Amino acid sequence: MLYTKSHIKVSLGYFLLAALLGVVLRTYVVAPMPINYRFIVHTHSHIALLGWVYIALTTLLYHLFLKKEDLQGKYRGIFWFTQLCLLGMLLSFPFQGYALFSIVFSTLFLLASYWFTAFFIKYAPTSIKNTKAYICVRAALWFMIGSSLGPWALGAIMTILGPESIWYRLAIYFYLHFQYNGWMILGLTGLLFYLLEKHQIIISPRIFKYFFWTTLLGIVLSFFLSTLWTGPALIYYILGGLGALLQLIGFGILLKICYGNRLVLQSGFSKFQFGILKLGAILLFVKMMLQLLTAMPYFANLASTVLDFTIGYLHWTFLGVITLGLFFFLEFFGFIKLSKSSYVVYILGFAITELLIFYKGMAAWLGWPLFEAYLKLLVLGSSLIPIALILILWHSKGDGAKSGI
Question: Could you tell me if 187 and 140 are in contact, meaning their C-beta atoms sit under 8 angstroms apart?
Answer without folding.
Answer: yes
